[in-house]
């Protein structure tokens, strides 16, 4: 498919049409899922031919579709599905703080507060100081209280206790790669021989 046929505008138009429809949340969820599957199919079949601004615009629009789907899933109390979609959004945009807020709330709703607190803590780091003092003030205070309570009552609590073995392995590999890069930088720039 050529770059001229890149479906950013049609995806945006479909998303807006779904937003405006006066249908039930489950119907909107189905329509968003269909739009996402079409978009992802396009992305997977033509990834090598797409680059530059067209690609960035399309990915941004896909993020918006995911965001609308996530909103519907949350409103429909489908918290586990909402978690999956928000994690996809964070793969596209790791600084999108609203996903951290929703992940915190979803994990708390399904009884996994320790995971929720991880995303709540990340929300604090992603939000500006001004946002923490204004629109997120109550939520940040709630997260701080829960974190303090959780740490005081769960002596074995740690960041790693909430991670799966695969995630811990990836984290360790990430740290080792960082050490290797730093070592390489210093060894290259400062000859220690």
Explain this structure to me?
The chain is mainly alpha-helical. The protein has 2 domains: 3-158, Serine Threonine Protein Phosphatase 5, Tetratricopeptide repeat (Alpha Horseshoe), CATH 1.25.40.10; 163-193. Helix content is 76%, strand content 0%. It is built from 9 helices and no strands. The chain has helices at residues 8-20, 25-46, 52-75, 79-92, 97-109, 113-126, 129-133, 137-153, 165-189. The N and C termini lie far apart (55 Å).
Q: Describe the main β-sheet briefly.
A: none
Helix content: over 70%
Round the mean pLDDT to the nearest integer and report it: 77
The CATH topology of the largest domain corresponds to Serine Threonine Protein Phosphatase 5, Tetratricopeptide repeat
Low-confidence residue ranges: 1-5
What structural class is derived from the secondary structure elements? mainly alpha
CATH superfamily of the largest domain: Tetratricopeptide repeat domain
Proportion of beta-strand residues: under 5%
SSE string, helices as H and strands as E = HHHHHHHHH
What's the number of domains? 2
Shape: globular
Assign the CATH architecture of the largest domain.
Alpha Horseshoe
Number of helices: 9
Q: Quick one: how many beta strands?
A: 0
């Amino acid at each position: 498919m050529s770059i001229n046929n890149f479906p950013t505008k049609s995806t945006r138009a479909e998303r807006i049409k779904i937003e405006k429809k006066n249908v039930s949340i489950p119907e909107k969820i189905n329509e968003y899922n269909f739009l996402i599957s079409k978009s992802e199919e396009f992305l997977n079949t033509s990834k090598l031919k797409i680059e530059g601004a067209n690609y960035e615009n399309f990915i941004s629009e896909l993020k918006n579709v995911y965001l609308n789907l996530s909103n519907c899933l949350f409103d429909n109390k489908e918290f586990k599905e909402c978690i999956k979609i928000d994690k996809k959004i964070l793969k596209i945009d790791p600084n999108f703080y609203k996903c951290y807020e929703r992940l915190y709330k979803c994990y708390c709703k399904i009884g996994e507060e320790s995971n929720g607190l991880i995303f709540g803590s990340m929300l604090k780091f992603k939000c500006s100081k001004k946002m923490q003092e204004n629109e997120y003030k109550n939520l940040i205070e709630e997260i701080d209280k829960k974190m303090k309570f959780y740490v005081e009552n769960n002596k074995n609590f740690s960041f790693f206790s909430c991670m799966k073995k695969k995630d811990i392995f990836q984290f360790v590999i990430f740290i080792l790669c960082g050490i290797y890069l730093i070592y390489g930088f210093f060894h290259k720039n400062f000859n220690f021989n």
